[in-house]
TrEMBL record:
It comes from the Bacteria. This is Kynureninase. Its EC number is 3.7.1.3. Keywords: Hydrolase, Pyridine nucleotide biosynthesis, Pyridoxal phosphate. GO terms for biological process: anthranilate metabolic process; L-kynurenine catabolic process; L-tryptophan catabolic process to kynurenine; NAD+ biosynthetic process; quinolinate biosynthetic process. Belongs to the kynureninase family. The modification N6-(pyridoxal phosphate)lysine is found at K237. Its cofactor is pyridoxal 5'-phosphate.
Amino acid sequence: MRTFETTQAFAKKKDEQDPLAAIRNRFCIQEGVIYMDGNSLGMCSVDAKEALYDVIDKWEKHGIGIWDIENSKYFMYQNVLGEKLAQLIQAKPDEVTVMTNTTINIHQGISTFYHPTKERYKILVDDINFPTDRYAVDSQIRLKGLDPDEAVKIIHSQDERTLDEAAIIEGMTEDVALILLPAVLYRSAQLLDMERVTKAAHERGIIIGWDLCHSIGAVPHDFSKIQPDFAVWCNYKYLSAGPGAIAGFYINERHFEKEPGLAGWQGNKNATQFKLLQAFDHELNAHGWQTGTQPLFSMAPLEGVLNIFLEVGMEAIRTKSLDITAYLMFLADEHLTKLGYEIGNPREDSRRGGHVSLEHPEAYRICKALKNHQVVPDFREPNVIRLAPIALYTSYEEVYQLVEILADIVRNKEYLDYSEERTLVV
């Protein structure tokens, strides 16, 4: 059981005892800034910068020869990164690759597995997931000549925060062909029981894919147990691989012989790739779902930062993440709830991801005021201040200072100085 205290001295003591404290020096901490938005865009690391600069130097020196150096490492860069990423989710190295972006990878997964029949034609989704997933689902359904109003089955949240796994399983009727769900919900930080839901889907003959965007790098997954059919994720949030970094894609080895829904030259077998045949001869592993030439400058920072993750280990990251988010919730209970704030995420360790969803009717203007205090938060409609104390680079003292600032903003009504008009990037 965790025991916290409300003093700043306690926060300092926690930092002194933090086994991950030294890792903070590997990140580009900005003086005077409290960065709480790593669940949206992770902080830059020295390791990521050095890896990117190294690839730029090699391009400068070798030109097109970069594809051949270091035993063709950069031509096969997706294999190198896939093997590293696989360790974070306990998957086999050839089940994981990196390519394109999350939305395109959703299209890739659905187009590979969604083959509707008269009896099975529905895709099951929820109504509080990040909308890009739904946009891709609707698009794929239309490409099959079907109407999303008829072919999309929606599991509704009862509280607009969380999903009920029992309701999801109840929705797995005989007309459902495929399921796409988030591992962690982006607003409320709810962590779904992926193993339970996946098992139920497979017992009913349904393909299931997971969106790990808000869990990868914060929550350890064991895909050797969960055994989903496919999964997608971005690498720029908790994994700190840079703005718009290349995304991740997992496909279970039992599906390697399936024809990719979106085929491309880079997914061809290496042995025949440069024969430039007109018939696609796809690699029988996750890399067979590649399409075009890989963007090395988007990939290199991921290699650099993954070295940190593999050095520290996901268990240690999860341990601190749960502790420091629990500390934030403790301070919120002590100082913020009486000022109109409310915690909107599950509190149990087994049911929450890596961020805290702090709710307030004036959340948007509070976020603007936070930025004026050199705090970087993340607002989500309609009333959520997302706060992510990242295990690798956020200190307990920063969390203490954050809560003091949040209290002052409401106590002094500072938020009234800011407009309610939404800016482009909220």
